[in-house]
Amino acid sequence: MFPFHATPPTAIPRLRQTGSEFLRLGRTVYFDACSSLFAYCTERLGYSEDSATKRVRVARLAQQFPQVLDDLASGELHLTGLFLLSGHLTDDNAEQLLAEARGKSKRQLEELLARWFPRPAVPPTITPVTPEPVQGQLSTWSGAGNPAPPASAPRPRVEPLSPESVRVEFTASVAFRDKLEHARALLSHTVPSGDLATILERALDLLIERETKRRAGAGKPRKRRETKPGSRHVPVEVQRAVRERDGDQCTFTDAEGRRCSATRFLTIEHIDPFAKGGPTTVDNCCLLCRPHNAHRARQVFGEDHIQNEISEARARRRQSTPPAPPAPTPAPEGGVSEKVLGALVRMGFKRADARRAVEQARLCEVEPLLEPMLRATLAILTP
CA 174 from chain center: how many Å? Predict the structure, then answer.
């Protein structure tokens, strides 16, 4: 365990060293408690199955290539990176591949492996996905009032296949599919193959061009000027110049000179704070991501001031939020029972059996609403 007051520069190397030593000990860690390292990770340490699988795979990799534990302890390679490398390292390529892998992020490692071990491109496909059950829809369950959990859609995934190609997977709506087919038809002469990647790339080119113009301001650059005193508005020409200068990337730099790599959710902020009289000029503005914008605000104004601002903003939101609508009034229990009885009979159950199930559900104090009663009675009739 690490003390809560440990600073990141102190705690991070110790965490890396602990993880490396855990994998180095291997069998001696879990032998007295569990039958395998996987069982020890999941049952005793509480890791998820995915996390445990990574550690087991890396522990096996370390038996063949012990040097990876030193890389893990020093931070030159991370656990996920070693997991990715584990299926590709051999005695012949280990030295060179590990040398190229050190210091790289997960995404950079995926690109490295795609360059070392290119895979063929996959054909574009559109596959229907089973929708989530609608709330209130009947489904299979193990007991009354416990519906089966809805199936979640797979997460979007971008997987490098080779230095020139990637595989992209995501779930979209039927409306998206229809628009894609419409675009395919419109471009049938210019893209006769109907290749989805080509069509989507053309659409993205147009979107990027339009959004770049919108954010930077259309027309020729105008002479730099300051805004009126007291206005927080950043003129379009200042926005354009700042984004071009900063390369659409957060400008925060740590004590060792490493720049933040964030390129999303960037905001234009004042270097000399606007609240303290800082002007809205190109030289006094920069791009920051949200976390580093908040970090700089805490440095300038202090933690207490920021927390007060957050509390006041939350209070304003609560005051402006309309009250929730009242909950629906349950129907009379007798009416619900008759509706459930009729539904069970229409499903093919005998009226006498259906009535007994309804009475039993009422004795169990099931909520007198149609859906809970119907689920409870079905659970009784189909144990």
Answer: 23
